[in-house]
Amino acid sequence: MEPVEKPEEPVPMSPSRLPGMPNWGTATVVGIFAGLLYGGSKEASASVSKDAEVMLKMGSTQDKREQHRLMRDAMEKRFIRVTRGSIIGGLRLGGFTASFFSLQNFLAETRGVHDVFNVVGAGSATAALFGLIMPGSLAWRARNVVLGSVLGATVCFPLGWVQLKLMEKANEGNKEDTSHHGEVTSGVGAAIERLEQQLRK
């Protein structure tokens, strides 16, 4: 008796992401590196005035040891300021980016559609959240929440519209490539069928 082959069980497919949804991890990494560069460059440019003060102090003394000590202290302080600014900038922008894109993906998955209102809602909620955690009194934080929510929605509406338009353009290009590939495949299939007919003759 021939062994009975068991039918292969279908592999459960993972739920697919909605088209156009950004990758949360990639966006967070990009935000962290952008924050590192911005915070470091900001502190480096702010250190120019302090370097001028150090040069004035070095010019007021003729002692080589004192000049060397002033230069070393200035370089150490500048390195600490730039490093601290880079870390704080990376954490702030990385946290903002992670919150924004995670909220955007959550809204898209909950509503089942990816549109401009997801971007507006995520931007408004993230700006309001960061306004709430800023230091200050309760009234100051409430003001920051309202201002952040309005400003976030205002800024994110055109950004979301541009994102959707770019997504539509990308989808149109993918459809054209798919149709062209289908035409090429059908042409190859017709050639194979003609060759088979000639061999049968």
Automatic annotation (TrEMBL):
InterPro entries registered for this protein in UniProt: TIMMDC1
Chief location: membrane
Subcellular location: Membrane
GO BP term, pick one: mitochondrial respiratory chain complex I assembly
Keywords, ordered alphabetically: Membrane, Transmembrane, Transmembrane helix
Topology in the lipid bilayer: Multi-pass membrane protein
Record-annotated membrane-spanning stretches: 20-40, 85-104, 116-133, 145-164
GO cellular component: membrane; mitochondrion
Family: Belongs to the Tim17/Tim22/Tim23 family.
Descriptive protein name: Complex I assembly factor TIMMDC1, mitochondrial
